[in-house]
Amino acid sequence: MPSRLFDRLRARLKSTRPLVADDEVFDAETLETRLLMADVGIAASTEIVAAAERAARDGKLVASAVRAQLEILLSPAAKTLEIDPAARPFVILVTGVNGSGKTTTIAKLAHRLRASGHSVMLAACDTFRAAAVEQLQHWGEREGVPVVAQGAGADPAAVAFDAWQAAHARGIDVLIVDTAGRLHTQDHLMAELGKLRRVLARHDPSAPHETLLVLDGHTGQNALMQAREFTSAIGTTGLVITKLDGSAKGGAVVAITRELGLPVRFIGLGESIEDLEPFNAADFAAALVGDAA
Hints:
Layout: H1 4-12, H2 28-37, H3 42-57, H4 62-74, E1 90-96, H5 102-115, E2 120-125, H6 130-143, E3 147-148, H7 156-169, E4 174-179, H8 187-203, E5 210-216, H9 221-234, E6 238-242, H10 252-260, E7 264-268, E8 276-278, H11 281-289
Parallel strand pairs: 1-4, 1-5, 2-3, 2-4, 5-6, 6-7
Antiparallel strand pairs: 7-8
Helix pairs in contact: 1-11, 2-3, 3-4, 4-11, 5-6, 7-8, 9-10
């Protein structure tokens, strides 16, 4: 029985399905081309095609074999974000390039955490753009979440420092730290992330407890490159894949998992505040194949 998440994923991954169908003559080259066009990556595509070829030789359903191999590849990524109650505040540092949906993701995450009973505070450390601070404050007001902010051009590390102190004093469960959108090639901004991490660690040596990288699902192999570079530079601990709509190349999630083994904490499926779902490997694999069985 397909889940609600499967139905929503299947509707939004139209550009990547069907990878293979049991009512067509199986062709390994065609399947490999479809996988590569879906940004699954060479290494993962090779493993999936091999599984499909074995199924075809054994007279088994090829689509089921593809789905099963995808699920195997994706399973390491299906690790839920867990908030350690001993770490108060539990600090989540959110990173990503401009346009990835980072600030909206923070709002959705705050909404989700509050709905599960956690108190939340936001730190507006994207001080390069006044609009970014205003956007975060707007979401904070809408969700009833306090936002610590300073003026445009303020030192982001100073904002993070103040936010941790405020969260600690008020007994806040989770502090979510927004950061300026940046490319991995912008060395000064990547260095700023390192400074943010060091400032937070002065308060709590284990902070930040989670470093989330928000990736735009539209960007395909660019998402893999970003994940690779950000992880190397700042030690990403989890991913959020956004904008998985009708034009998204969801196969990039397979490539990222295959290479980096990073957990995908959440996927974004739309613009609503509710549209942030925990990653489910079985549902994602089935939606990529286009199979509800």
